[in-house]
Automatic annotation (TrEMBL):
SUPFAM superfamilies per UniProt: FAD/NAD(P)-binding domain
Keyword Thylakoid: no
Keyword terms of this UniProt record: FAD, Flavoprotein, Oxidoreductase
Pfam families referenced in this protein's UniProt entry, alphabetically: FAD_binding_2
Record field: catalytic activity: L-aspartate + O2 = iminosuccinate + H2O2
PANTHER family assigned to the protein according to its UniProt record, in alphabetical order: L-ASPARTATE OXIDASE, L-ASPARTATE OXIDASE, CHLOROPLASTIC
Entry superkingdom: Bacteria
Natural source organism: Shigella sonnei
Protein's UniProt keywords contain Oxidoreductase: yes
Cofactor: FAD
Protein name: Aspartate oxidase
Domain FAD-dependent oxidoreductase 2 FAD-binding: 10-233
EC top class named in words: oxidoreductase
GO molecular function terms attached to this record: L-aspartate oxidase activity
């Protein structure tokens, strides 16, 4: 008999940075969502991002220019379709953050109109960096955390490590092979728990802690990549 503590939801999101919390907020009006945070919810890489977010807001700028700047800076490594998708959707995504309450810096133009204070960073041919002083990630993360923690359909489980994905055929469920949840290490209680979900989303970020030196926090250890590989999600 399985005596592990259990959670259940419509959508389990593993990862509590900008990606995971943004998705949770977009889904929560129609679905019950659980977000797993490996540590305190403010300790992901998003919180430490400083410079800003690139998007075309200046009328003298263009998406084509943003795309070309990115491809040049990428030195042939970038996937052009991915670059075009990101550049084309950047403004609407930034606007969504603004609608959630993220406060980007503004300034008053010579004509007296207030607009976003756009900076220009390496590789960019135009001013297209929106920022919140030099702590943009902190502003984004803090805003999204507050929204998520106050949404009735979102449960944020802090200090909860996803150990592995639960795959249907591994536990004897009939039908098409699929991911049905995750095993979770509750670091507060030092217990293993199960979380059952109709859909599971990996939003765990990168694996920069494989390097000896990195500006990312210790939790950036590639857990989601490893879980996806073990579950057969990556080919």
């Amino acid at each position: 008999m399985n005596t592990l503590p259990e959670h259940s939801c419509d959508v389990l999101i593993i990862g509590s940075g900008a990606a995971g919390l943004s998705l949770a907020l977009r889904l929560a009006d129609q679905h019950q969502v659980i977000v797993l945070s490996k540590g305190p919810v403010t300790e992901g890489s998003t919180f430490y991002a400083q410079g800003g977010i690139a998007a075309v807001f200046d009328e003298t700028d263009s998406i084509d220019s943003h795309v070309e700047d990115t491809l040049i800076a990428g030195a042939g490594i970038c996937d052009r379709h991915a670059v075009e998708f990101v550049a084309s959707n950047a403004r609407s995504c930034v606007q969504w953050l603004i609608d959630q309450g993220v406060l980007f810096d503004t300034h008053v133009q010579p004509n007296g109109e207030e607009s976003y204070h756009l900076t220009r960073e390496g590789g960019h041919s135009h001013r297209r960096i929106l920022h919140a002083a030099d702590a943009t990630g902190r502003e984004v993360q803090s805003t999204l955390v507050s929204k998520a923690q106050n949404h009735p359909n979102i449960r944020v489980l802090e200090r909860s490590n996803a150990v592995d994905l639960i795959v249907s055929d591994k536990i004897g469920l009939p039908g098409t092979r699929r991911v049905v949840g995750a095993w979770v290490w509750n670091r507060n209680k030092e217990t293993v728990e199960t979380c059952h979900a109709k859909a599971v989303v990996l939003a765990t970020g990168g694996a920069s802690k494989v390097y000896q030196y990195t500006t990312n926090p210790d939790i950036s250890s590639g857990d989601g990549i490893a879980m996806a590989w073990r579950a057969g999600c990556m080919r």
